[in-house]
Amino acid sequence: MSSVFEFNAVNRVAAGTSSAKASRRNGNIPAVVYGGNGEPELIELNHNEVVKSLVNEAVYSHILQLNIGGKVENAILKDMQRHPAKTQILHMDFMRVVMGEKLKINVPLHFVNEELSPGVKEGGVVMHSMIDIEIECLPRNIPEYIEVDLTGLEIGDSIHMSQLALVDGLEIVALTHGEDHDLPVVQVMKSRAGSDDAAADDGEATEEGVAGE
Q: Which of 44, 58, 95, 137 could form a cystine bridge with 78, CB 3.0-4.6 A?
């Protein structure tokens, strides 16, 4: 997969909390690049430019180009720390990509055909247990997303990780740890409102029966 996102960065000289705070005061995001064939490298990126790029979901599952003072490196966004109360990114982790080596990356899940689910038509509610999933593959095989088709799901049905339709070359990391890690991705559950209505109907029927006696 070709890189479509470019992030401009500069090197940070010092590590530590005080250096990171200074970076944020200047409108930047402290970050680190690691892995591949190089040593960990401290960098900082412009906060506003990064926020604009992150609007596109594909950033999280694409190979990115990091332009660090004129030197370009391929990397993926591995982790990001956000402020708990503000719309501020506090720190970012990037992992270098070696094109011939497999890597692990979280890919978004796209849920489709909810309107075709018999369970939804009967008033059921779709419960998403996951919004992304960690896969292992070669960089050229990273998908933008993995589609989860809800067609045919009845109330009480679920789709597990092992049931996801994957193209060749992709492997779900959790499943490499055994069948007990095959967790549900999505379920169609009976809605609470439907249960309450049914209980109310039963109550009315009972009262009518007593009155009839």
A: 95
Single out the residue in 75, 98, 121 at which a domain terminates.
Answer: 98
User: How would you classify residue 62: left for phi > 0, otherwise alpha for psi between -120 and 50, otherwise beta?
Assistant: beta
* pLDDT of 3: 45
pLDDT tens profile 126-150 = 999 999 999 999 999 999 999 999 9
Domain span at residue 68?
5-98
**The pLDDT of residue 13:** 81
Residues near 160 by beta carbon (within 8 Å), at least 6 away in sequence: 182, 183, 184, 185
Instruction: List the chain residues with pLDDT less than 70.
Output: 1-4, 193-213
3-state SS track over 17-38: HHHHHHHHHCCEEEEEEECCCC
> Cα(42)–Cα(14) distance, rounded to whole angstroms?
8
